[in-house]
Design brief:
The protein is α/β, with parallel strands linked by helices. Helix content is 39%, strand content 14%.
């Protein structure tokens, strides 16, 4: 047998080493690919919940009938009529008393429905009643969502037309009542807050008064103060917000 030269033997060994390295790398890559976890599937969208009782709080000189359209919209969005409640209060009294009455009303709703929390939807001066309840009386622990529709949350100069009433004095910008509910955190607790307001409001002056620091504030292109109560688009948005 012919003896191979040392140089040729070295060439053969080098070729074998290269081939082994390539095969080893391919095997390692294949193993790594097999071990890699498959890409996570996109998270499923959270279903909307219509089990939360909703308390509607009217505005100055209003009453439960103001919410006729809202009640219909919420029922169309899945709420049972047994989970929808309208709180009525004295528009000419005192908003501190009105907020205390709201606290009692919410406790009663919780007792009747077995719910640990309710959602609140307010309009106009109902914003003051609601904010006092959530912030000053600690009601935020009983409220999952708060939706303020054209709320007089920072007051309105329009209240100057009715200053003979305590509620209007409290609703005027710069009042001690306004200062109390706007000082520090305007959206306390774990409650989710949102507002809807419009430059065409005409009653909440300035119209930006409704916005709350820390809330989702929705600027509606053009809607009047009373028109909001019949705006099925806005009310539908609010129903979906409360269900989220």
């Amino acid at each position: 047998m012919r003896r191979r030269s040392p140089r040729r033997l070295l060439g053969v060994l080098a070729s074998a080493l290269v081939a082994f390295t390539v095969l080893s790398s391919a095997s390692t890559a294949g193993a790594a690919q097999t071990a890699t976890a498959p890409a996570a599937a996109p998270a499923a969208a959270q279903p909307l919940s219509t089990s939360t009782p909703v308390v509607f709080v009217h505005g100055y000189t209003g009453n439960a009938s103001n919410w006729a359209t809202a009640l219909s919209v919420f029922q169309l969005n899945g709420w049972s009529s047994s989970k929808l409640f309208a709180y009525e209060y004295n528009s000419y009294g005192n908003n501190v008393s009105n907020a205390q009455g709201l606290a009692s009303f919410v406790n009663n709703v919780k007792s009747r429905t077995g719910a640990s929390k309710v959602a609140i939807v307010n309009h106009s001066m109902g914003g003051l009643v609601s904010q006092y309840y959530l912030k000053v009386l600690g009601g935020n622990t009983s409220v999952s969502h708060l939706a303020s529709i054209a709320g007089a949350n920072h007051g309105t100069t329009y209240a100057g037309a009715c200053l003979i009433y305590t509620t209007c004095q409290q609703m005027y910008p710069g009042s001690s009542f306004i200062s109390q509910i706007t000082a520090g955190d305007e959206t306390p607790g774990d409650t989710r807050y949102a507002s809807w307001y419009s430059a065409c409001d005409g009653i909440i002056l300035p119209y930006t008064s409704t916005r709350l620091s820390g809330a989702t504030n929705n600027n509606v292109a053009c809607q009047t103060h009373i028109g909001f109560l019949a705006d099925t688009v806005v009310l539908g948005q609010i129903a979906r917000f409360v269900a989220s």
